[in-house]
Amino acid sequence: MSKPIVYKTTHRIRFSDLDPYDHVSTANYATYFVDHRMAGLAENVGWTVEKLRSLPFLMFVRRLEIDFLRPARGGQEITITSFVRDFSGPDATIECSMLDERGKLLARCVMITAHVERGTSRASDWPLDVAALFFEPAPS
């Protein structure tokens, strides 16, 4: 594969996402990362929620490992970026980063998503044509 396509979204931290110490609560980091990835799929591949219902496969977040480096706080604008690092069988390994307004790294994660055949509900290898959607076209 060639160079991965990087998805980028920005978010404003809402009051309801905070713990009593004005930090984003732990569970909300997972929500931010997953919502970011879904927004990126809609924007870059056209896979809106409606479109996902019609695809011949499903995607599931199998694992999400988050490193909390600095607190994200209420009212702060954050930027999340992500890209598919590689595919191995049914798994896509996605690297994500959360940055503050100055570009300082707040959190990072590795997300493993599984490709599952809709008709059989069994994990299967990512088709090459689908995997190619996450990388820049090879130079000709």
Uncertain runs with pLDDT below 50, 5 residues or more? none
Give the helix proportion (percent range).
10-25%
CATH level 1 class label = Alpha Beta
**Strands of the largest sheet, in order across it?**
1-3-4-5-2
Task: Describe what this molecule looks like in 3D.
- By secondary structure, the protein is α+β, with helices and mostly antiparallel strands.
- It has a single domain, classed as Roll (Thiol Ester Dehydrase, Chain A).
- The chain has helices at residues 26-45, 49-54, 128-131, and strands spanning 7-12, 57-68, 77-88, 91-99, 105-117.
- It has a five-stranded antiparallel beta sheet with strand order 1-3-4-5-2.
- The model has no long low-confidence stretch (mean pLDDT 95).
List the helices and strands and how they pair.
Layout: E1 7-12, H1 26-45, H2 49-54, E2 57-68, E3 77-88, E4 91-99, E5 105-117, H3 128-131
Provide a brief overview of the structure:
The chain has 140 residues and is α+β, with helices and mostly antiparallel strands. It has helices at residues 26-45, 49-54, 128-131; strands at 7-12, 57-68, 77-88, 91-99, 105-117.
Name the features.
140 residues; alpha+beta; Thiol Ester Dehydrase, Chain A; 5-stranded antiparallel beta sheet; 21% helix; globular
